[in-house]
Every structure is written in C-alpha cells, then in structure tokens.
Amino acid sequence: MALTRDFKQTVRERAQHDPAFAKAILREAASLFLNGDPATARLILRDLVNATVGFEALAVQTGRPSKSLHRMLSASGNPGMDNLAAIFDALRANLQVDFEVHAV
User: Fold this and answer.
1) Euclidean distance between CA atoms 102 and 104, whole angstroms
2) Greatest CA span in the chain, whole angstroms?
3) Non-local CB neighbours of 8 within 8 Å, separated by 6+ positions
4) pLDDT tens digits for 58-68?
5) Residue 26: which of 102, 84, 103 has the closest Cα?
6) What pLDDT score was predicted for residue 45?
7) Average pLDDT of the residues of the chain
8) How far is 92 from 2, CA to CA, in rounded Å?
9) Exposed / middle / buried, residue 74 (Cβ in 10 Å: 0-12, 13-18, 19+)
10) What is the 3-state secondary structure (H, E, C) of 25-75?
11) What is the average pLDDT across 22-36?
C-alpha cells in the first residue's frame, strides 16, 4: 500500500520552507478574488494563514478577533472589503510581497 500525506499538511510544510511558494499562494488568492472566485480564494488564504502567520498572530496584526477571521476565511465566509484588505495587508507584510496590477 502506498503511503499518502494530507494535502493541507503538504501545503503547510512547503509554505513554511519555501518562501516563493507561500508568495505564489498569496498571489493566486488575490488573482482568484479579482477574477470572481472568492470562495476558492478564501480557502486558499485560510490554508496560507495556517501555514505561515497563524490566526492568533493575524488577529493581533489586523485588530480583528481570531474567531472572526476563521469565519471570514471559511467556505461560507463573507469578509467585508476592509477586513479582506487587512488580511491581505498582514499576509503581504509577513511574506514581503508587493502586488502590481496589470490590465489585459
């Protein structure tokens, strides 16, 4: 029988050891939000938060309760623009990512 690993565990470990991978995940989440797939973007952000900064530290950085952040980034979450901007800003700062927008 083949050994398998949990996907979320694999993502978490790679994001912790490969900064370029973590940055790519953040960029993908931003792209998904901007291109009309917020549900997938929220789940990707949730995995990224768990893999990097953690919800407790994110709560401190954003000034929002950890439990609220968990709800916002759940499958049925609905973060407002201010909350979403705070989440992206905190993750962007932690991962040292700058965003550039290019129109096509």
Assistant:
1) 6
2) 49
3) 47, 50
4) 999 999 999 99
5) 84
6) 94
7) 90
8) 37
9) middle
10) HHHHHHHHHHCCCHHHHHHHHHHHHHHCCCHHHHHHHHCCCHHHHHHHCCC
11) 92
* SS3 at position 81: helix
Q: What is the pTM of this model?
A: 0.85
- Residue (of 92, 101, 102, 93) closest to 25 by Cα position: 92
- Break the chain into its structural domains and give their ranges: 8-95
Q: Is the pLDDT of residue 1 over 70?
A: no
Half-sphere exposure of 54 (CA within 13 A, CB side): 3
**What distance in Å separates the CA atoms of residue 10 and residue 5, rounded to the nearest whole number?**
7
Instruction: State CA 76 to chain mean position distance.
Output: 15
- Place 83 in a pLDDT band, splitting at 50, 70 and 90: very high
